[in-house]
């Protein structure tokens, strides 16, 4: 029997630790950690994710500042808002919910966020730091996947990890984290010839392609640990349902452990966002305190 990696349960443990840290942070600094969430437009899934992020923040003792903007928001308005949030001492973390409406420049806005407040870990400074193994804010979904993998496997050293998908949000940072954990890492993508040749060798298989149930049993080595990052809505017999990139029913019997969809990686993404907010808040407040001390000293 494969282990079903329960993202709801694991995320509850992470959130519990964050709540404890947030209480200690309040005791130490006299303010709550603050998270600003920017949502542009009316995408229904994004509205659900933002609502969940704010609910989890409140439960953990993190202040949230929601900025809901209309779909026709201009680039200049969004740039100004991010600049204001960068300067706001009550805001320790900033996230702009993706995807943005097509007329807005995603790269420009993600690069405008102060890297110290970039709790999504998407700023080039944090991307670069991650890739050279320096302390950084780590993207939430791959961070959540690593917590799950460590829980199941312990030390990942020497494992062959294959990541299917090369997005900036998941595939690339996932590969960087696995490499940092001393895995042998392969990335498979849409131009890879005979991808199954590689995925069939994977001790760890991470699927992040956004294609419903694309990964069948013919992609998986018996005994592999499979992490399914995909969240795809499909219509089955007139009903909408969420499925992953992995065909769970067909693949599960082959595996040592596997994440379900829903209830796998998704909840860990939000828990790691809270974790990053605490990390950012602690670094910023420690810095500003030592800055003040320095000002007093001179
Ligand atoms: N700025 C960001 N934008 C986006 C990110 C991100 O990390 N930062 N990731 C995704 C969306 N996302 C968080 O924002 C996210 C997606 C899914 C879940 C989740 O818990 N899913 C549940 C199912 C939810 C449902 O019923 O629809 C699950 O898998 O169990 C959390 C966060 C893109 N944009
Ligand atoms: Mg995009």
Explain this structure.
Catalyzes the oxidation of 5,10-methylenetetrahydrofolate to 5,10-methenyltetrahydrofolate and then the hydrolysis of 5,10-methenyltetrahydrofolate to 10-formyltetrahydrofolate. Homodimer. By secondary structure, the protein is an alpha/beta fold. It contains ten helices and eleven strands. The strands form three sheets. It has a six-stranded parallel β-sheet. Strands 3-2-4 form a three-stranded parallel β-sheet, with helices on both faces. Helix 2 (44-60) links the parallel strand 2 and strand 3. The longest helix has 33 residues, at 265-297. Residues 294-298 have low confidence and may be disordered. The structure holds ligand LMY7XDAE and magnesium ion.
- End-to-end distance, in Å? 65 Å
Tell me the major beta sheet. Answer: 6 strands, parallel
Task: Tell me the CATH topology of the largest domain.
Answer: Rossmann fold
Q: Strand order of the main beta sheet, please?
A: 1-11-8-7-5-6
Quickly give the structural class: alpha/beta
β-strand amount: 15-25%
Bound molecules: ligand LMY7XDAE, magnesium ion
Number of strands: 11
Order of helices and strands: EHEHEHEHHHEHEHEEEEHEH
Give the class-level CATH name of the largest domain. Alpha Beta
* Helical fraction: 40-55%
Total separate domains: 2
Considering the protein shown, what is the CATH homologous superfamily of the largest domain? NAD(P)-binding Rossmann-like Domain
Number of helices: 10
Give average pLDDT, whole number: 96
Low-pLDDT windows of residues: 294-298
């Amino acid at each position: 029997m494969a282990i079903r990696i329960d993202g709801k349960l694991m995320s509850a443990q992470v959130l519990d630790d964050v709540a404890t840290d947030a209480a200690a942070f309040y005791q130490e600094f006299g303010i709550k950690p603050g998270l600003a969430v920017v949502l542009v437009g009316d995408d229904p899934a994004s509205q659900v994710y933002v609502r969940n992020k704010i609910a989890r923040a409140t439960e953990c003792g993190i202040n949230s500042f929601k900025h809901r903007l209309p779909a026709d928001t201009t680039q200049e308005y969004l740039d100004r808002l991010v600049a204001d949030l960068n300067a706001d001492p009550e805001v320790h973390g900033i996230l702009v919910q993706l995807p943005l409406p097509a007329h807005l420049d995603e790269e420009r806005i993600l690069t405008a966020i102060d890297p110290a407040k970039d709790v999504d870990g998407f700023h080039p400074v944090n991307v670069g730091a991650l890739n050279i193994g320096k302390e950084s804010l780590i993207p939430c979904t791959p961070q959540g996947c690593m917590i799950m993998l460590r829980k199941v496997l312990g030390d990942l050293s020497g494992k062959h990890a294959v990541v299917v998908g090369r997005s900036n949000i998941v595939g690339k940072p996932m590969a960087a984290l696995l490499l940092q954990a001393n895995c042998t890492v392969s990335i498979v993508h849409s131009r890879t010839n005979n991808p199954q040749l590689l995925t069939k060798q994977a001790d760890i298989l991470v699927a992040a392609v956004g294609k419903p149930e694309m990964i069948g049993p013919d992609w998986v080595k018996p005994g592999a640990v499979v992490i399914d990052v995909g969240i795809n809505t499909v219509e089955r017999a007139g009903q909408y349902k969420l499925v992953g990139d992995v065909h769970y029913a067909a693949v599960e019997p082959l595996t040592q452990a596997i994440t379900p969809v829903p209830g796998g990686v998704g909840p860990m993404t939000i828990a790691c966002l809270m974790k990053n907010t605490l990390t950012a808040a602690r670094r910023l407040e420690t810095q500003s305190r030592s800055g003040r001390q320095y000002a007093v000293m001179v």
